[in-house]
Amino acid sequence: MKHILLIDDDxxxxxLLSDYLSQHAFRVTAISDSRPLARIVGTDAVDLVxxxxxxxxEDGLEIVRRLxxxxxxxIIIISGDRLDEADKVVGLELGATDYVxxxxxxxxxxxxxxxxxRERPAPKRRRERKTYRFGRFExxxxxxRLVDGDGVNIxxxxxEFKLLTVFLKAPQHVLSREQxxxxxxxxxxxxxxxSIDVLILRLxxxxxxxxxxxxxxxxxxxxxxxxxxxxxxxxxxxxxx
Length: 241
Prior knowledge:
five-stranded antiparallel beta sheet, 14 strands
């Protein structure tokens, strides 16, 4: 039986979703805030998390960030008026896999839950630890760690990390916005297309000597973007515990 963790401070919504999911053969743990979150995730296997972004005194996006950094369970974000385009982008960039907006049809919600669980990748016992070297930088995929030639750590958001990885897998090839969108997003929406340009700008600020005159990530007008550097890759098999 799949275990779903539901975080919503509205008792009516919390009880409605909890009862409905339980009727459809899910085990549900429903909580009103994040205080018991670490204990639940640390002691019980959670297959999917549902988070309301508007939790009174708490920021639901911060909960998404914390969950995505400590668990590989899919995350569905729910909200009402607050779920504008910016929140969709930020929530998905932080690690959420889907979103619903109140009011929503409960059968549609159930379908999204099932879809998120189907799309969850099976855990692997072994994975490849890859390190990409390009220009004066080195990116450790397993550790999600980017350092420059002086050994200084460069912090990347989840979206920046995904986008940089896409470029590193296809160096010196022009990638269209559509290709970048497909590789970095799970939803096809105009706002995400525009967010590619924002992520490019952020990466340039962190990688380029002069972001206003980029040489590492270059714009090909009418075509897309290209990583101009040579890339070398080293692999090392690592046991996942």
